[in-house]
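[Solved] Which block belongs to which protein?

Original post:
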Amino acid sequence: MHLAVVPFLPGRRPTDEDRWPGFGSSDRAALVTDGRRPNTAVVLVETYDLPETASLEATITIDGRSAGRARVSAPHSAEARQRVVLHPDVDFAGVDLSLAAGFLRQAQVEVRAMDHGNLVAADTASLDVCDVRLLGSLYRRITDQLVEPDMVRQARAAGVADPGVAYHPWYPVLLIGGEKVANYVRALVADIVGKEDHLTDPVWLLRVGIYLELLTCLGVIEAVKDDVGDLLEPRERAALEESAHFADIRARIDPGAWRAVWERREVSFARFGTPRLGPVSGLNLLRKREATLQFLRTHHEDLKHAIELAGPNSFNAQETWQRVFRDAERAVLSVTAVGLPELRFLPAAAREAVLWRRRGPAAAHGVYPTACDQYRASMNEVADWAQRHGLMEHAGAECIPREVSLLWNLMASPARVAVLQRQDGLGPDVTIGEPVVTETPATREIEDLLSGVPIFRMLTRDQLHDLAEGARPLFFGPTQRFVVQGHRGTSLFVVAEGAIEVRRREPDGREWLVDTMGPG
C-alpha cells in the first residue's frame, strides 16, 4: 500500500497535471490575498495498491495546532494522482500572519488513507503561508510614523512651513523599497496563486523578500527608538524580543549601522542666496543622494542575511536575483517623479539631464542609471559572497550582467526591453507592471517544429501529433538557465526560436563555451 505527496519541482505547477499527467508538482506556498481572484494551494498525492474501500482525508496544522481540514478533490481511485486542495483566503483567515508572527508561518498538510477507520498509509507536505497584503507595511510604517514626523520637526526647527514628507532625504529610498515589494508581490501572486511559471521557484523569492523587509525595517526601528520612541506595538515588541520566530532575525539586526544612516536625514531648506527648487534648496537633491547611498550600503549587509535565512538555492537563484533587480529598476522608473518633487521646478532639459544625463551607454550618470548601477554592483557582490558560502549559484562572471538590466537596455538596446518584460510575464512597456498571459503556440506549429528534428523523423504524423500535444512551451530570456550542470534533468528540450549557449564549468570555476544551438 502506497501513498506519497508529489514533491515540488522547480518550474512546474499543480495545473501542469491537467495537460501533462505525471508532470505536475505540489505547491510549496499558500498566499492569503484580497480574495478578488480564485486562490487555491494544491498538494498532489500518488496512491497505489490501496484497498478499494479506502478513502483519503487531509488535515492542516500550524505549530502543531489544527487549522482545519483540506479538501480531497476527487474520490479515491486505485492508481491515480489525487488533489488535496486548500483555499488560503478561507483556511488561513484566522491564522496570525502579522508582524508578530514574522509575516511567515509553515503549515503541515497531512494526507491519510483510511479504511474502515484504520490508517493504512499517510504522508505530509509543508507549505509556507503568508498574507501578501501585509508585505511592504513596515516601509509604510517607517514613512508614516518616523519620516513624516521628522519632516515636521525639522521644518518647525527651521522656522518654515512643512513642505511635506516627499522632501525628506529618506523618502525616495523608502518609496522605492515599498514599490519594489509591490512589484515582487505581483510576481508571487501570478505564479503561486495564478499558477504561472515565470519564476522557477517563487518560494525562495517570498522568503528573501520577507526577511529583507524585516531586517531592514526592524533595524531602523531599533536604531531610532531611543530618539523617537518605539514604532512597534507591545505585542510586536514582545515577539521581537522573546519569540522563537525572531531568534535568527534578532541575531542579525544591526542598530548601530542604521543609526549612521539615520544621521543622514537633514533637509536642506531654501535659504536666501541659494538655488531654490520649490520649498527647498537645490542642495536637497544631494542630501537625498547621500542618504540613499548610505541606506544602500547598510541594506547590502541585510541582503546577505536575508539569503542566509531563506536557505540555499543552487538551481534558480541567478534568475530570481535578476528578477529582483529588474523589479527594483521598475520601482525606480515608476516612483522617481514622486520621490523627487524638486525636479518639477527644473526646466525640461535640466530634468532630463538629472534623470538620464546621456553621453552614450557607458557614460550615462543620471539618477536612473546611477541608482541601478550601484544597486546592480551591490547585488552582484552579495551574489558572489553567497556563492562562496554555498547559498547561491550563478553562471558567468556576474550574476546580473548589464544585458539583463531594463535601464541599460533602454539606453543601449531598446528592442531587448520587450524580451526582458516577456521573460517576467509582463507587457512590453516597462510602465505596464501587470502580468499578461503569453500565447501558447498551436499544436500544428509544434508538430512542424518537431518534424524537423532528426530523432523524431521516424515518427508518423499521428505520433508527432501526440508528442506535440504533450509538449510544454517555455520562454527564456537573456542568460536564463533551464539546464544546470550538476542537477538531474527530467525533460528533453527543442529550441523553437532564438539561440542558446551551452557552457561547461570546470572544478576551478572557469567556464568555457561548448556550443551555440539554434532552432531544431
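(Second protein starts here: sequence line, then its C-alpha cells.)
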Amino acid sequence: MADGDKIAPMELDEAKARELEEQFDSEIRFRPLAPLAARLVGALLVALSIFHYYTAGFGLLSEVFHRGIHLSFVLGLIFLVFPFAKKGYHEPARSTLVRPLGIPIFDWALAVGAVVAVLHVPFIPLDDLAFRVGNPTTTDVVLGGILILVLLEATRRSVGWPLPIIAVLFMAYSLYGPSMPGILVHPGASFSQLVNHLYLTSQGIYGIALGVVATYVFHFVLFGVFATRIGLGQLFLDCAAWVAGRFAGGPAKVSIFGSALFGMISGSSVANTVTVGSLTIPAMIRLGYKRQFAAAVEAASSTGGQITPPIMGAAAFLMIEFLNLPYTTIILAAIIPAFMHFFGVLIQVHFEAKRTGLRGMTREEMPDLTEAFKRDWPTVIPLVVLIGVLLSGYTPYLAAFWGITLCVLVGLINPRRRMSLKEVYEGLRDGAKYALAVGAAAATVGIIVGVVTLTGVGFKISYIVTTTAAQMAAFVGTILPVDLFGPQALTLLFTLIMTGIVCILMGCGIPTTANYIIMATIAAPTLGMLGVEPIVAHFFVFYYGVLADITPPVALAAYAAAGMAGADPFRTGNTAFRLGLGKVLVPFVFVFSPSLLLVTADFTWGNFLVAFIGCTLGITCLGAALSGFMLVRTKAWENVLLIVAAILLVAPELTSSLIGVALIMPVLLRQISGYRTGAVAL
C-alpha cells in the first residue's frame, strides 16, 4: 500500500450489515416471500418478540406452557420461511391452489401439524399429565411421534443434516439396546416408552435446552439487535479504532478490539463477523494484508463474541441451569479466558504486521472519540443498566427487559440517531429470526439428552473414555524421559485431548449451542470422574465447541468473512484456526489451574498469577512460532523450541514451566542480537 493511500472512515451501515448477515448466515436466510406472506411472517415474528418481552418484564408463564408457546411459534414459522431444499431460494412464488400465499401446501400442513403437536402437552391439566407420564394415551403417542418427525425436519431445514442424524442414531440406540455390543448393551425401550419420555417429561423435547432458549437467550439476542441499531456498535468501533488504530497493522487490531467490544452485545459469531468485518476487512486489505489473512483475523476475533461477557450466547445461560449458579458467577469465570483468546489473536496479528512492515492508521484516518461520545453516549445507558441489574442479583431476563426497554427509549428520543417506529418493528422482527434455528436445535438436542437419561449411556461413554485415557497414560508414562506428570495428570490430559477432538468434530456439523449441550451431558461427567470441578468441565467443552466456527470444513464465521473479502473459504478457515490456536491452549490451562476462572473452590491469587503469567507467555511463544517472527524473523529451530516451550508453560507443573522458560532463553538472545544488528533470519 502506498503511503499516500487513505483508509476510509469506519462508519457502520447497519442495513448493509444485516444484508451481509442474511447472505452468509444460513440460519436466518429465509426463502423469498410474496408480499402478503412476508407481512404475515413478519407479524408472527413480532408477536413472538412481544410475547417474550412481556413475559420477561411481567412474569413468565408456567414452565411447560411457556416453552410450548415458544416452540409452536418456532416450528410453525420454520416451515413457512425455510424451503424443503436449498434450491427453494428463488424468486417469490405466486399464490396458487397448491401454494397458498406462494408457500407449498405441504409446508402449511407441516406448520399446522407442528403447532397442534406442540401445544397438546401444555393444554393437558397438570394432574392429568402427572398420571399419563409412564402411561401415555394413544393420542399422546401419535402426537408425540408427529412432533418428533416435524422437529427433525424443521431442524434439518434450518441448521442442516448432522444434528437430526445424531438424534435419530440416539433414538435407534434406545430402541435396540439389547442388540448393542459390550458395555453399551441395555434393556431397550419400546416406541411408546421413548415417545413418553421425550414428549411428556421435562427431560426430553421440553427440557432444559428449550427452556433456556425460551427464557434467557431470546431476550439477550433481542437486546443485542436493538443495541446495535441505536448506535452502540458504532461507538464500540470508534473506541476500538482510537485505542488500537495507531499501532502497526492498525485496522487488524481494530478488528480484534472492535469484535471484543461488539461481542459484549452479540453472542453470534457470524453476526459479529459481518457487522465488524464490513468495516475492518476492506481496511485491512487496503493496508496490505492478504485477503485470506484479513478475513481470518475478523473470523477468529468474532468467535470471541460467544465467550465475551456479559452476553455470551446460549451456552452461558445453559450453564446457569446445568450448574445452578448465578449468571454473575458465569460472567466472572469467563473474563480471563476471553482475554486470553483475544490476546492470542492480537499477538499473531502484531507479529504479522511487524514482519510485513504494515503501518498503523494516521490521525486523519482515526475517528474523533470526543465527537463519537457526544453523538452516541446515550447508547451506553441500556448496557450499563443491564449489567447493573444483573450484578444486583435479579434474573437475567429481567435485566434484558430493562435493557431492551431503554434501547427503544434511547432510540426514539436520541436526536442525533433517532430510531423510527418502523425500525422498532424491524428490530422486533429481526430479533425473532435468530430464535428459529436455535429453538429447533435446542428442542432436537432435547431428544439426545432424553435418550441419555433414559438409557444411562452417558455413564457408559464416560467409563469407556476414562479407561482408554488411563491405558494411554500408562503407555506414555513408561516412555517419558523425566517424570513431569503423574499417572492421574496424564489420564486427565488424554481425556481432555479426546474430549476436545470430539467437540471440534461435533462442531463441524452442528451449532455451538447444540454441541455444548451434548458434550455437557456426555463429556462433562467424564471430566467430573477425574476430579475436575463442574464449572471448569463445562467451560472446557464450551470453549472447544466455539472453535467450530473457525474449524474447516464447516467454519461459518470464516466462510462469512471469506465471502466479504473475496478470499478462498477453506484457506481462510485454516488461517483463522491458526489465529485461534490460543483458544486451544487456554482450556487446558484452566483445567489444570482452575484459579484462572476466578470462581473455583481452590482459588488463590498466587495460583492465579502463576497460571496467568504462564498462559500469557505460552500464547506469546505459540504466536511467534506460528507467525515466524518475534523481534526479527525466526529460524526453524527457534520455532520448534517456541512450540515446545508454549506447551510446557501451560502445563500444570512448576518444573515444566521452568523448563519452558529455559527453552525460550536461547531464542530470545538470538532475537535480541538479530534486532540490534538489523539481521533478518530466513
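Accepted answer:
You had them paired correctly. Confirming on the second one: The chain has a mean pLDDT of 86.
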